[in-house]
Structures are given as C-alpha cells and as structure tokens.
Amino acid sequence: MKKMISGKSIVKSYGKGQEATNALNHVDIEISAGEFVAVMGPSGCGKSTLLFALSGADTINSGEIELDGQDLSKLNENELADIRRTKMGFVFQQPTMLKNLNILDNIILSSLQDNKRNAKNITKKAKILMKDTGISELEDRDIAEVSGGQLQRAGICRALINEPEILFADEPTGALNSKSSEEIMEIFSAVNKNGTAVMLVTHDAKVASRAERVLFMKDGKIESQLSLGKFDEHNMEDRINQVILKMRSFDI
Amino acid sequence: MYRKLIINDIKKSKLITITITVFILLASMLTSLAAILSASLFASIDGMMENAKTPHFLQMHAGEIDMRQLSNFAGEQANIENFQVTSFLNIEGAEIVIGEDSLAGSVQDNGLSVQSERFDFLLGLDGNIIRPTEGEIYVPIYYRKNGQASIGDSVAIHGVRLTVAGFLRDSQMNASMISSKRFLVNQADFEQVREFGKLEYLIEFRLTDPAAVAALEAAYLLAELPANGPPAITYSLFKMANAIDDGIMIAVLVLVSILVIIVSFLCIRFTLLAKIEEDYREIGVLKAIGLKTRSLKQLYLAKYSALAGIACTAGFVLSLFAKEPFLTNIRLYMGEAGGSGLGIAFGMLGALIIFFVVTLYVNGVLRRFKRISAAEAIRFGAPREKSKAAKGFRLSGSGMISPNIFLGLKDVLLRKKLYVTMLLVLAISSFLMIVPQNIYNTISQRNFMTYMGIGECDMRIDIQQTDNIAGKAEEIAGFMAEDSDIEEYTVLTSYMFDMRMTDGSAGKLKVELGDHSIFPIEYSYGRAPQSESEIAISGFVADDLEMGLNDTIALIACGQEKILTICGIYSDITNGGKTAKAVFDTGDGSGSVLWSIIPVRLQSGVTIDTKVAEYKNRFSYTKVADIDDYINQTFGGIADAVQKVSYAAIAAAAILTVLVTLLFMKMLLTKDRYSIAVLKSLGFKAADIYIQYLTRAFVVLILGIAIGTVLANTLGELVGVGLIASFGASAFHFAINPMFAYLFSPVFMAICVWSATRLSLAGISSLKISEYIKE
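^ inputs. structure came back:
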C-alpha cells in the first residue's frame, strides 16, 4: 500500500532547558493511503500533539515527517497552507466555525479560495455533502442556531469539500452525546470507504473500534498497537472488546 | 496587590499601555500648554498696557488743533482722568533708510514720536520707559521681528543720521495688524526732521471708568472735536490687537487638545472594553466568590488612575519645556509679566483636570460590571454578542468577490460597534488634516480680501489728510482715464454724515459713496447698495445700531434728511471697521469729505510695481499701494502661522492614524486569534488573512475619510469662520484645495493605515494553529 504519511523519530518538547518536557519522544509512525488509524491514550500523552505535528499545523523539534514523499520541515508557511487546503481535512472536538458566516459559507470557504469562478459547482458539491451528512436543511443557518452534532457534521463537510487525501480528526465526538457520536462515526466510516485516509484521536473505545489500526500512546511514545482489519459492522462488539482489553493492559 | 496587578498587566500589553499613556500625556500637555500660554499672554498684555498706561480712548487728527477746546472738553467730562495730545510725525517710508534699505515697501504708516509726558509711554524691552538721548532712535519691535533692523544700525531720515539704540514696545501699535508704527527719538532730533514729515496728533484720554468709553466717544463726536484721522480706537481694541496673533495660536492649541482628548477617550473605552472581554471569565469567577462590583472596579481603575497620574504629570512637565518657543513671541512683543507663576499654576490645573476627567471616564465605562452575570460569564467566557449574520450577504452568492475581501467586508458589517472607535478616530484625523489646510487656503486666496471689506484690485490709491480731496481724486481719475495700462478704476469717497438715531439723538456715520459694483466685496447678508435709497453697513455698525437688513437709517445729507434702507451687511477691517456704503449723490457736500480711495485693476501684463512707482511719483500727495503687498504684510503673518499649524496638524493626524490603527489592529488580532487559527487550518495563508484585515481597515478608512471630509466642510467651516471672524471677517466659505482635500489627504491617510496594518499583522505568520485550537 502507498505510504501517505511517515514520521521518523519525531520529538516535540515544551519549555526550555531542564524544565522541558517531551510531548513527543522519538515517535515513529506510518499511515498508508486510505488507511483508518485511531490514536488513543491518557490525557497529556501527546496524541493531539502527534496529530498537529503530522499535519504540519505545529512545528517539531527534531525528526522527520514526510507527506506524500514531501519533507514537511522543508516547506514554508505558504506551501504548508497549500497542502492543508488541497490534501488535508481537519475536524476538531469543538466545531471551529467562523461566527460571521452561515453554515453553507463556512463549508465552501476554503474551496472558493482556489476556484472563485467555480462557486456554483462548489456550492453544488457542498449541498451534496450536506445531504449525505443529513444537514441539507441547515445551509442558511447561523452557526449559533444549530446543535453541536449538526455543527460537527458541517465541520466534516467543510473538511471534505476539497476532497482531501487524509482527514485529521481530534476527538471529533468528544463534545457529543452517544447518539450523535454514533452518527458522526458512521460518516467517518463512509468517508474512509471512499478512499480517504483518516487519522483520529479519541478517548472512546467505541469510536476507536471503527479504525483499522489503533495506536496506544503513553508519555509521548507509541507503546503498542492493535490491528483490527477493515471495518465490519457485524463484529463491532468484538472489535470494541479488543480495544478495551488492550486499553486495560495499558492503564488507560 | 494593586501594584503587582498593574505591573503584570502593563507587561502583558505594552503597546496598548504605551498608546493610551501617550494620548493622555498629549492631552494633558496641550491643555497645560494652552492654559500657561493664555495666562502668560493676558498677564503680559495687561502688564505692558499697565506699564505703558495705554490710553482708553484715542483719536488721530491731522491739521490744526485747538488745545483750549480740547482742554475744555476734558474738563467738562467727569469721566476723564487724564488727557494729552502727542505728536506723530508721519514720514514717507522711502525717506527712512535703516542700514542700506529704506522702508519704501512698507505698508505701515511710519513716524517719529517723542516720549509722552503723562501716559501712553513707549517701553524698552526691559519694560522701562525709554528716554532717548540725542542721536539715538528706538525702533518698533515689529522691525526687529522682520529682521529689518538691529541694534547699532544707522538710520537716515532725510539726511539726519541716527543710531538704533534699541527696540521699543508700543502698547498701541505693536501688532502687525495696526498699520501705524512709532519710532522714538529725542526732542531735539524730532525738531530737526519736523519739516520733512507730516505732523499728526494723537488725542488721548485716560478714563476713571474705562467701561464708559462709548459715552465718551459719542460726546467727543458730538462736540465736533478734531477727528479727521482714522476712527477712534479704544483700550479694548488695543488689547485685542495685541492678543490676536498669539490668541489664534492658543485657539488652535485648544482645538487640537479637544480632539486629542476625544481620541484618548475613544481609545480608553475601546481598550477597556476589550480588556473586560478578555477577563470576562475571571470577572465572573471573582463575582461568584463574592467580590463586590466596587472592588472589581477598583482593580481596573487603579491601573488607569496610575497611568493617568503618570501621563498627566509628565504632560505637565513637558509643557513647561514646550512653552518656551511659544512664549518667545509673547515675551518679545509684550514682555515678561510676573505672571509666569500664575501661568504654571493654570497649567497644573489644566493637567489636573485632565487627570480627573480621565478617571471619571474610566469609572463610567466600568459601570457595566454591574451588568455582568457571574453564571453567564463563567459558562460562556465572553459577553454574548448579539450578532445577526447579515443574511443577504452570502459568500455562496457573492459572485466575483474574493473570499478574503468578502470576509473582511462581512466582519465590518457584523461587528459595526467594534469598528466605531476606529471610524471616529479616522474621521477626526481626516478632519484635522483638512480643516487647517482649508483655513490656510481660504485666507491665502486673493479674493479673501473681499471678505474683509476690500474690493479685489491690483493697486489702490488713498487720498487722505490733505486739502481738496475731491479735486485731487478727480485729477487722478482724469489721468487714469487716459492711461491705457488701466483696465478699470473707480473713485470711492468717504464722508462723515450726521445721523438721526431712532431715539431722536444724533450720531455720526462714515459713508463711502461711489460705484460699489466695479470692485465688489462679499456681503455677510444682503447685497451692495444699488439705488439712492439703499445703504450697506459694516458688521460693527450693525452691532452698534442694533439694526439688520431692511431697517432704515436717517442721514442728514446736503441739509436734508435722507431715509435709507439697509440692503447689505459686510465685514470690514479697514478704518476701524465702522463704515457704510451707499450710492447717493451729495451735491456739494464736499465739506465733510474724509478721504477718497481709487482701486485700480490693471490690464494683464502690466507690472504692478512699475505702475505703483509711476503713480507715487506723479501724485506725491497720495498713498499708492500694491494690494498684494498690502495683503501680504497685513495677513501674511497670520497666513504663515496658519500654514505652520496646518503642517503640524497633518503630522498630528498621521501619528494619530498610525497609532490608533496599530492599537486597533493589535486588539482585533488578539480577539480574533481563534478565527485566524481556524482559517489557517483551512489552508489560508498569512497573505490571505492580511488581505482580510486590510479590507476591514480600508472599509473603515473610506467611511472615516468620507465623514471627516463632510464634517470638515460643514462643522470645520464653522470653526474656521469662528477663527477668522476673530480678526474681522465673517460669513465666508472655505476655499477648498481639491488636490489636497480629495487626493493628497486621503492617499496620505491610506498610506498611514496600510503601513500600520502591515506592521500590526507582522505576527500572524508565526501564529500557531495548535495553540488556539488544540483541546
């Protein structure tokens, strides 16, 4: 399988001198194209830091990160911005929408940046995504007028509008109730089925069980991993149990 | 605890603290400066006029005077404390040679005087009464300022050689606007040159009750005492003339400090609200654990009181240094009065007032603490903005607008309240830039003289203080009719008429007769007289008579009463300002002729200087003036001063624009860090975000300039009228320099806003997405 992202000996530390703490302590990681990877671990273990580092949204102190064969550390801010816009999608725990725009405008914003003249097609695409995620009636709404679950769906639509190769999700269900959470994960599974790689950070075993591979982190290191194979609804129960078992062995 | 809190807070927000401190400091410095200067100016004027014992009433007269008649008059009037007649030996400017140069180009009436005996003393620069010895001459301070004379220069008057021994302050004629200047010599030297000049008398009175000068003026005219010179001048007019140049400067200072105070308040309000918003959750927590609103307020008030205290003290101290250059002119002309202590006390008071006003204002802004609900503050962490997305304005339907410009526009539309501060400051800046420039442009326009009661012409001939004025005017007019260089001319002759007042008493009125349509002036109200039954009066006369348009005036002309309807009111700075204009025929009423003037417009291509010289030569009994010289020498000083002020105002506006844009953009960035992180995560580049902020800044700038320009042309014109009215003209319109007001000023402001925005956004490329989004 084609390599999507590979990180070698990634170190990210906060603070200086003796007080410095390593959030990422020589982490090696690889994610293939179209793969669904979940990262789990206790608070402060460095899982979000890893996500931000791999996506180029944060700088690292040492190590090497390649995306599609490109060394991220050699790219400047503008080149990174281009990659974020064309190859990556982001979904965060709190829906990071711009207050000034309605739902539809939030979704199409980044896409319009490259294709001003194509606004019609982009809007059409956004409407299809909204329909697929079940929020087609919300396009004109203000972001203050919809629920958290709906906002998170809109966030996914926004992340998908540029047809990214990889979707980064930092606890996307963290602020949702279990029903909404389940619905959101259905969407992630569907997205992955269509060939988009997903890297997802979560606390929730149920959420992680949808991944092909679950990485367990502790103190800035990947301690272990669990391969679950391609997602299959029928053995969901079993997958969850496997994740929970593994978690227990790590005191998570 | 306060100290620690304040210091920590200042460390965290250096730029904001510095900007606010600078504004308060400027406000306090300007206020203190204006207070010090006004106190010094009036103390110096009072001091000089007291030392010089300036007359309360002065009438000039050329020709014979009957001393006994005057003495009798002085004896009869209970109000007269002292009375004297001094001599003024009027000498043609060309006959006074200082060093190498003569005063031929001077528009002043120059003359010699000896020191008075009883009052109206000419003072030395040390404030003492000068007693010149033989061979010494003391020159008016005006010529030192001009650089036309310095100590030790030799002065030749008709071959009599004198040496400049010093300069003198003349409490009557110091100001450049007063068109006579007295040189002081010894009695013996005076006698030597007596035959070369034209002797005029200054008939002067000191009163026991100076307030009753109007009654004396009326009595003087009624008694038909000698009065063929320019109209009577009173103590208050002398005082005003002395105050005008520096007074205008102080008025401008006051104006600027008011603007700075407004801007300071806007900035304080803006930063304070932003700070409250930033600390919202903490305020909620403090409230929740039981802190009283008052204690909370004190936390914030302490910081601003400390800042205001430091800034006001520093402002006051700076004003003590800044006052020096401003005071040099006052000291030179009026001398140092013991008022410096008083001035400093006033300055301190000014700074103190600014301090209290600032603390009161901060206290007022902090009143909103009461409205903060602890629960809500803790839950939401920020005041809940009632922002209604402008529904009609959608990115999906915005067609060709780039998303960056769209986002910028939308932000301004949605958060209007936030941008009001910057809008107001930019409007003020643009106002500040345009108004002084417009005032300068207005008074430096050639036709400005028409607002001052002078028709627009190239050359003007004055025939006065001589016999057979009418005949001489006719002779000149006859010569002009043949002169092919002259395009147009007219003879305007002023007469003194008796006037019957509405209460039956008698009065006097100077009326200029002739064709007023050839060299028209601007009328504040109404228009020029056209028929025999119409009369136009100057603003001063209208005030004196308490009359307006369509009222009637009864004049006694040619032995009969003439009822004239007032058809126009104009501003006049000539001849004491109390004049009237009419077109009726006097028949042989030549007995009351005061003077004639002949304004001339030359054919294009004719050199004015040559023509002036030719007429001076041919008609030696007249005064021939190049009107541009006249205007230059009379208003040039004021125009220069206003020009300097306008440059200073441009600089101030630029600093204001840059500082406030910087401050505003920095605050905005702090507020918007989260949105910027989101945009970056979506793949927006620093340059994109920069365009968004520049769009916001320019939308506000364009609106600000529009408001500022409209205000400048309306409110600013009123301010300008007020200022210019203080030296005589009223009811005029701004002459706007379109290149400046509509091109230079907006472009300059745009450059300021652009650079400040650029500078304040320098940090966005290093802003990390993870810092603001990571959970």
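Chain B has four domains: 1-57+233-384, 64-227, 398-447+635-775, 467-620. The CA atoms of residues 423 and 700 of chain B lie 6 Å apart.
thumbs up if we can close this ticket
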